[in-house]
């Protein structure tokens, strides 16, 4: 399978059947691994990077989960393919801009992707739609064990898995959840949540990782520390933090409905109106409007089964995915026109809002 | 009047002061405006202090070129510049700068998680094989033929053990 054909098929996050979670859109776990006796990617010379890429690629393609997957060196990918892979969270922005000798291996259903020669020799990651930390861990743990049978990992009994950056030492594990927290944003409580989460040793970031904004009220919450705690303990701790954030978001929603449902319904209703009638829409604006509709679904303004459409559009309204449907290169304002057209078509047949829930409005 | 704080990453006066609490420990970082911007500090939800803490915790008094990693040629100065190490061996070479850093950075300083059992087992066998080959060479040189025969048998046996898992795959 090639990356081109892989990108033509729905991913875990765009597949309508896999979207069922109200607040956690996606769970992701990654493991950082390196080969013993080899320079880390940022320090290795080009021939060594090439040698590592081939060794890792061969070992990966022989494992059960990756057998029918796709693999490519970053240099073989077009700019559009790289962008689409970033938008599907299958590669990082860093990998897409990396030097010769980097690559990626992705499994058939796009739930497992392994970046080679990113910051570490291997960045193994498992993606799951919804809140599935334990499932993601069991999948990634099995793949890691299978790989370890074929590759000699750099490991120290005292410091654990040795990584290019000391912030990833130990388990090399970063577990994260992408959370949709519109009520906490509207209620102006996100800053408080970020502070509390930081105090618990977790990090809050925007949708696409470090340095990115949080358009669409989507935040990525992950563990900060990787050494001194077992993988299961890290996952358990993150899980309980996530549950507590879910509770806070639900409380904020209930409070907004109780005190200011007209304001909330107005926002949702306007978003619906814009999405049905827009002719020019930036990706940030699209994210924010889709976010309000998703909130509407959770508040039963729209039917539950339409959540999958929104989650698919969160990915498909991104610049790379919009560009793919055009025959020639588009300027950003041309993309905004095409995006508006795509969304107008989707929302022409979308369910009508029902604002008379629980006797309110 | 007290002199203004200097940026932790360069020598300009610091105008951005950050505090983050990780594991009940307070970490402070002072940055100048351009370093703050380069690090994305303008978006408080979008960046991690970990990288900054890591650089700030390096002792600037130690001459940067004093130690060099034998495996990859990496120096402490390189670490200060990149915030990343050159190779796994660097963790032994620079243990004196790694250890104090870990306390602030992680929940503990000792690994308690998963262990790559098969890779470690393979490494132990390979190390033992290397040792036996040296012993054999030495025994032959010094004409201790009985010892040499013993080493040779042990090497043959060990090689079979090492190769077995490959055949099973």
UniProtKB/TrEMBL annotation, chain A:
Coiled-coil ranges from the UniProt annotation: none
CDD domains: bacterial_phosphagen_kinase (cd07930)
Broad enzyme group: transferase
GO cellular component: extracellular space
Homology family: Belongs to the ATP:guanido phosphotransferase family.
InterPro entries associated with the record: Arg_Kinase (IPR023660), ATP-guanido_PTrfase (IPR000749), ATP-guanido_PTrfase_AS (IPR022415), ATP-guanido_PTrfase_cat (IPR022414), Gln_synth/guanido_kin_cat_dom (IPR014746)
Ranges where the Phosphagen kinase C-terminal domain occurs: 23-252
The protein's Enzyme Commission number: 2.7.14.1
GO molecular function: ATP binding; creatine kinase activity; protein arginine kinase activity
UniProt keywords, alphabetically: ATP-binding, Kinase, Nucleotide-binding, Transferase
Gene Ontology process terms (BP): phosphocreatine biosynthetic process
The name this protein goes by in its record: Protein arginine kinase
Pfam families listed in its UniProt record: ATP-gua_Ptrans (PF00217)
Species name: Rariglobus hedericola
Gene3D superfamilies linked: Glutamine synthetase/guanido kinase, catalytic domain
Binding-site list for ATP: 26-30, 89, 123, 174-178, 205-210
UniProtKB/TrEMBL annotation, chain B:
A UniProt-annotated Pfam family: UVR
Domain of life, per lineage: Bacteria
Residue ranges constituting the UVR domain according to the UniProt record: 126-161
GO MF annotation terms: cadmium ion binding; cobalt ion binding; copper ion binding; zinc ion binding
Biological process per Gene Ontology, one example term: SOS response
Keywords assigned by UniProt, alphabetized: DNA damage, SOS response
InterPro entries listed in its UniProt record: UVR_dom, UVR_dom_sf, YacH
Name of the molecule in the record: Excinuclease ABC subunit B
């Amino acid at each position: 399978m090639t990356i081109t054909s892989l990108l033509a098929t729905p991913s875990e996050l765009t597949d309508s059947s896999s979207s069922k979670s109200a607040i956690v859109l996606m769970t992701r776990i990654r493991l950082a691994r390196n080969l013993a006796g080899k320079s880390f990617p940022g320090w290795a010379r080009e021939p060594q990077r090439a040698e590592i890429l081939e060794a890792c690629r061969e070992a990966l393609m022989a494992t059960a989960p990756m057998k029918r997957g796709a693999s490519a060196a970053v240099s073989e990918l077009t700019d559009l393919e790289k962008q689409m892979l970033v938008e599907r969270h299958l590669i990082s922005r860093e990998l897409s801009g990396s030097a010769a000798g980097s690559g990626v291996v992705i499994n058939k259903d796009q739930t497992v992707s392994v970046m080679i020669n990113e910051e570490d020799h291997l960045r193994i990651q498992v993606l799951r739609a919804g809140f599935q930390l334990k499932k993601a861990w069991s999948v990634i743990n099995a793949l890691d064990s299978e790989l370890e049978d074929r590759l000699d990992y750099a490991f120290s009994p005292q410091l654990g898995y040795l990584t290019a950056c000391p912030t990833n030492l130990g388990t090399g594990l970063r577990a994260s959840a992408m959370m949709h927290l519109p009520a906490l944003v509207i209620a102006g409580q996100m800053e408080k949540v970020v502070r509390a989460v930081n105090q618990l040793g977790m990090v809050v970031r925007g949708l696409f990782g470090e340095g990115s904004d949080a358009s669409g009220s989507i935040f990525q919450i992950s563990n900060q520390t990787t050494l001194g705690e077992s993988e299961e303990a890290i996952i358990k701790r993150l899980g309980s933090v996530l549950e507590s954030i879910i509770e806070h978001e639900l409380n904020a929603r209930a409070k907004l409905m109780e005190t200011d449902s007209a304001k909330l319904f107005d926002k949702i209703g306007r978003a619906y109106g814009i999405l049905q009638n827009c002719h020019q829409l930036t990706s940030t604006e699209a994210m924010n409007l889709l976010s309000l509709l998703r909130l509407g679904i959770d508040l039963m303004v729209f039917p539950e089964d339409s959540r999958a459409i929104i989650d698919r559009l969160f990915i498909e309204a991104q610049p790379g995915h919009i560009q793919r449907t055009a025959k020639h290169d588009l300027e950003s304002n041309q993309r905004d026109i095409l995006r508006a057209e795509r969304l107008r078509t989707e929302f022409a047949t979308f369910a009508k809002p029902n604002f008379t829930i629980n006797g309110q409005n | 009047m007290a002199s203004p704080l200097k940026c932790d990453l360069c020598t300009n006066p610091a105008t951005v002061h950050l505090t983050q609490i990780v594991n009940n420990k307070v970490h402070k970082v002072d940055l100048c405006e351009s370093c703050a911007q380069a690090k994305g500090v303008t978006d408080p939800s979008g960046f991690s202090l970990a990288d900054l803490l890591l650089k700030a915790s390096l002792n600037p008094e130690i001459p940067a070129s004093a130690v060099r990693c034998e495996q990859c040629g990496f120096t402490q100065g390189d670490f200060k510049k990149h915030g990343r190490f050159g190779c796994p061996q660097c963790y032994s070479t620079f243990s004196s700068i790694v250890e104090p850093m870990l306390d602030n950075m992680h929940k503990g300083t000792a690994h308690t998680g998963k262990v790559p059992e098969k890779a470690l087992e393979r490494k132990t066998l390979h190390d033992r094989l290397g040792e036996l080959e040296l012993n054999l060479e030495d025994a032959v040189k010094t004409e201790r033929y009985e010892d040499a025969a013993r080493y040779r048998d042990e090497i043959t046996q060990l090689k079979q053990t090492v190769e077995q898992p490959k055949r099973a795959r």
